Structure formats: structure tokens, C-alpha cells
Amino acid sequence: MYSAVCGLDESNCSTPLPDSWIAYPNSHKYDGIANSDSDLDSCQMTCIGNSSCTGLDWSGGASVGSRCWLHGPWSSSESRRSTTGVTYYELRRTAIANWVKYPDMHVNDGIATNSMDLAGCQQDCVNNASCTRLDWSASASTGQRCWIHGPWSSSQSRRSDQNADHFELYRGSDDLCGEQHVIHTVIEISLTRLQKVSLY
Predict the structure, then answer these.
(1) Three-state secondary structure readout of the chain
(2) What pLDDT sits at residue 95?
(3) What percent of the chain has pLDDT over 90?
(4) What CATH architecture does domain 3-16+95-198 belong to?
(5) Residue 46 has what pLDDT?
(6) pLDDT for the residue 16
(7) Per-residue pLDDT tens for 54-67?
(8) Considering the entire predicted model, what is its pTM?
(9) Residues 6 or more apart from 160 whose CB is under 8 A from it?
(10) Which residue has the higher pLDDT, 105 or 190?
């Protein structure tokens, strides 16, 4: 069972979240790629201009060529480490999201967040560049209601669960707000069901 949480009317689009940065002073990540940017603004613009870039290390006291280190899929999967004089900046990109809802379903291996309501849970997912779907269980206790999914649970199939709803995320920055992808998905699901029905 599914339902499309979208429409072709632009007024139904989610409010875009602007590009923003979260600073983590005195921390860094391994395996960044250095570039020649000499000021923080230029370093951040270079990251924004690279669709794979998810963050950067900025070391203002270092020599030119060693101040700006870009991070993305090429970087270490290890978490940030403490280091003096370097600030790690996490990039949260402009995002417009639409959702396809699968009632009474869930997926294993999600990561729990502390969201209290569905809107907050969806925003947690949108703000995580790796998140592609979520499970929402309104009746669960705090810290167990919202479970976000990404590469860590991508091979998992949806399963029946009367206490949860599953949401697939489709991102877009075009005039359709990602809805074209959602509509195609719904059509593909419908065609698949028609094919199955016609076999009997």
C-alpha cells in the first residue's frame, strides 16, 4: 500500500531549506582534498559548487594550499577528531523534498533520531545528504519514533508493521520540486501491480 505525498501544483512544494553550514571548532576529518582557496568564503563556495562535497576543514593559520580541505565520498568514514586550530564545517544543501508514504510498513537497520513529530523526522532526513527514507512510529516513546535510512540500510526491503509508516524521500531543486520522480515512481508501482494482476 502506498500513497503519494505530492502534487503538481507548485504551492504544494515543501519550503526550500537554504544552503547552510554547521561549524565544529577544533575538529577535522581525515582524507580531505586540499585546494588553493585562501579565505573561508571561497573555500565554502568551492564546496557548494562540487555536488559531491558534504563538508570542509578550514585551517586559517596554515599556508595557502593547506587551509581548505574538501570532504565527500572520498573522505574517511571515521567521525570527526579533535585538533586545535581547525574547524570542520558540515554543508547542509538547499533541499526540496517530496515523499511517498507506505502505511503500516517499516525497514530494518534505521538510525534513530530524537524527533518528536513527523515534520521534524522528515527534516532530519532531508538535512542528512545520505538519507533516502524514514520510518515514523507516532505511538513509540521519545527517541524511538523516527528512524532514518540511507546506504546503511539500502538493501533492506519494506516489511509489514501496524505501528509504523514508511516514507521514501525524493529530492529535487527544479520547478517540480522533485515531484516528477515521485509521479514516475507511483506510475511504475501501479504498472507493476497491473502486470501481476494480468497474470492470473
Answers:
(1) CCEEECCCCHHHCCCCECCEEEEEEEEECCCCEEECCCCHHHHHHHHHHCCCCCEEEECCCCCCCCCEEEECCCCCCCCCEEEEEEEEEEEECCEEEEEEEEEEEECCCCEEECCCCHHHHHHHHHHCCCCCEEEECCCCCCCCCEEEECHHHCCCCCEEEEEEEEEEEEEECCCCCCHHHHHHHHHHHHHHHHHHHHCC
(2) 60
(3) 50
(4) 3-Layer(bba) Sandwich (3.50)
(5) 95
(6) 54
(7) 899 999 999 999 99
(8) 0.47
(9) 104, 105
(10) 105
Q: What is the mean pLDDT of the chain?
A: 80
Torsion of CA 142, 132, 16, 179, to 10 degrees: -130
Look up residue 30 and give its three cell numbers. 581525515
Mean pLDDT of the region 156-178? 79
| Domain residue spans of the chain | 3-16+95-198, 20-92
Q: Tell me which amino acid residue 41 is.
A: D
Collect all residues with Cβ–Cβ distance below 8 Å to 105 and sequence separation of at least 6.
1, 158, 159, 160, 161, 164, 165, 166
Task: Please name the residue that has the C-alpha cell 527544479.
Answer: 174
Domains 3-16+95-198 and 20-92 agree in fold: yes
20-92 is a CATH 3.50.4.10 domain:
yes
Q: Environment class of residue 139 by beta-carbon count within 10 Å: exposed (0-12), middle (13-18) or buried (19+)? A: exposed
Given a cut of 60, whether residue 12 has pLDDT beyond it is no
